[in-house]
User: Which sequence fits this backbone?
């Protein structure tokens, strides 16, 4: 078995939530083209209500100071399209003078401070912070618990971007995914990691390590005995974001070698329901992790 440790730059729940749309074959969906949008300035310019359909059953309300902080005009964006508005220099009493839609899917606004700018309508909808939207986001971000089997994907699917997306989506939702059909070579395992991120997180084991029984093992994973469920290197200040285990086939004469995956979130939830006092201790009391080797 080989370990490949990756920096957590390519996969997070926030980026791979169920609400994200995967775009294939150059197609692109624009939210502003799917709805009839109506704007209304409220509270003396303190808020802007956006109705996303003609029935006004789907609405978002944005505060004027938040809109000014996130203005996307050329004056408020750097050459690299990053917002450069300084929050501490803003007047918290800033109000919207007027707001209207443009034919380019933007909301053009003028504020009481004299600034004129715009925000992308699609961006506003994706970043809505209404109570209804936040409730839906919490529901979508609730992890799915593993059942009796892991989600599976054939390695041939990873030749296409859509297959890589399906793989990362399964990892994001369930925490683990089984890739099948990967050749039993180190280079093939490394090639799979490069589909996620080109950056391997080096440890004192190197970029990857081979887990096999050694004559004089320095760690439990290189010994001949059974290894209990555990999390790798919890003593690290910066822990591994995603670990790939490349499981090689043993000879037919070898027994054992099964890999067991434990859903830690499901275990924690069961502990919370069955032993709430113990769960409260678990989340409240800090624990120090260290690796002690008594012969060193």
Assistant:
């Amino acid at each position: 078995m080989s370990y490949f440790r990756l920096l957590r730059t390519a996969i997070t729940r926030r980026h791979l939530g169920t609400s994200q749309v995967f775009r294939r074959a150059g197609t692109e969906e624009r939210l502003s083209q799917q709805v009839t949008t109506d704007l209304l300035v409220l509270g003396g310019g303190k808020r802007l209500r956006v109705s996303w359909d003609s029935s006004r059953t789907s609405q978002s309300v944005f505060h004027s100071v938040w809109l000014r902080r996130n203005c996307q005009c050329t004056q408020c964006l750097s050459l690299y399209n990053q917002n450069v508005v300084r929050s501490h220099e803003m007047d918290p009493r800033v109000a919207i003078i007027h707001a209207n839609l443009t034919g380019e899917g933007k909301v053009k606004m003028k504020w009481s401070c004299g600034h004129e700018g715009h925000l992308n309508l699609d961006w506003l909808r994706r970043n809505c912070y209404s109570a209804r939207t936040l409730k839906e986001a919490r529901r979508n971000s609730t992890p799915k618990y593993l059942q009796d089997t892991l989600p599976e994907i054939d390695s041939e699917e990873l030749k296409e971007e859509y297959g890589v997306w399906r793989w990362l989506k399964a990892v994001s939702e369930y925490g683990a995914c089984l890739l099948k059909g990967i050749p039993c070579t180190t280079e093939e395992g490394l090639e799979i990691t490069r589909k996620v991120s080109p950056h391997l997180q080096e440890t004192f084991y190197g970029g990857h390590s081979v887990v096999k029984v050694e004559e004089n093992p320095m760690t439990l994973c290189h010994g001949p005995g059974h290894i209990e469920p555990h999390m790798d290197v919890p003593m690290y200040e910066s822990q591994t974001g995603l670990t790939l285990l490349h499981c090689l086939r043993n000879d037919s004469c070898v027994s054992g070698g099964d890999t067991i995956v434990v859903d830690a979130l499901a275990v924690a939830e069961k502990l919370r329901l069955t032993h709430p006092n113990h769960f409260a201790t678990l989340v409240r009391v800090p624990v120090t992790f260290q690796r002690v080797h008594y012969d060193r």
Residues 2-34 have pLDDT under 50 and may be disordered. Helices lie at 64-69, 121-126, 131-141, 161-174, 186-194, 264-274, 276-284.
